[in-house]
Amino acid sequence: MHRRRFPAAGRWPHTARATLTLALAAALTGGLIQAHAQTAVPPAAQDPLTLRGAFEAAWARQPEALALATRRDAARAQAQAAQSWTPEPVAMELSTKTDRLNRNVGTREYEVGVAIPLWLPGERGRSQALADAEGRAVESRTTAAQLRIAAAVREAWWSWQRAHAELEAARGQLENVRRIAADVGKRLKAGDLARADQHQADAAVAAAEGAVAQADGALTVAQQHLRSLTAMPAVGLASAMPSQAEPEPPTPATATAEMDDHAELLALKDRAAVAEGAIALAATQSRASPELTIAATRDRGAYGESHNQTFTVGVRIPFGAGPRHDARVTTARAEAVELQAQMALERARLAGEREAARARADAARAQLAAAERRAGLALESRGFFDKSFRLGETDLPTRLRIESEAADAERQAARARIELAAAISAWRQALGLLPQ
């Protein structure tokens, strides 16, 4: 049998202290390694903010989107009701007859029956057609609502992009003016320039700082407007970079051929179909639904007599509805006429918007080409005058004027890029296309 050796009593404190020290060192080392690993491995970059993402975030908050599932359930329930065997639920009839309160000779009668509503001729088929039309109207109305939300999001989105471009241009101008002011300060100390030149350069810096502050405020306003639509975090929206522009829309010929597929026209067309279906259904419902009654009766005349069993089959046919029926048909016909006229006006309006949007996109494309050409020439001129200013061949006012012209040319080019992207987006909006 092996004997286990234990440390001496005096060595216990040292052993425990050493063990505790090693455990703490291991824990600290593991924590540092884990912290270093978490620091060294960057977190997954968030997806860049896109126009499509902003639209989806805005649509998810709309009442139409929140009620869409319920409306679809209602449309399915109405379609199922139109396919049922009866227009109304079957009813049960129970009755009893007795002489217990007067003679009490034992007269008894019990009757059990059911009342079955019957479809009028053609009513079931037209009810199914109306239910199908209302189901399509729910979907087209949802698409039209999405397109209206897309218009608001697109406007806020490109306003934000314009403000972002203005701020970047203002910051670039401020950086260049500060560089010129620093150069002027050095040359002032060397005795090459006067103090008035330093004041002029400092004034240009102050003006550029004011432009940056103004652009920053405009960007904040645009961000808040976009945030009010999308409910995106302010921090994430402020740090996000604008995304690329939307793709080019279809060709004019294809766009004209797809006029009937526009969401607004489809919504009106489906509403008109619902009105036409309501007219057809109301025409068949000239009276209330007839009823088929089937009953069983069990009775006796007095005490001691045997019970008799009888069966009853009856039909209940209501008279015509008269003015009530005429009112339903006339109301549905007026709705259909109004929707047809509105659809004609909407078609003309959309055609005009498409042509205007296409012309705006062409003009923005030409404006961008001119702005980029001007920006290129201004950048080259700024390089020439910057070199001549450093050599003392150009005075400070001329240098500041050239810098201002170059900054304005860069701002116009950036603005022209945004305007072209916004024009393409507006063209897609006029074509009835959702953001991509």
TrEMBL record:
Residues 347-374, 399-426 form a coiled coil. One of its GO terms (molecular function) is porin activity. Residues 1-37 form the signal peptide. It is found in: Cell outer membrane. Keywords: Cell outer membrane, Coiled coil, Membrane, Signal, Transmembrane, Transmembrane beta strand, Transport. One of its GO terms (cellular component) is efflux pump complex. InterPro entries: OMP_efflux, TolC-like. It holds the Pfam family OEP. Belongs to the outer membrane factor (OMF) (TC 1.B.17) family. This is TolC family protein.
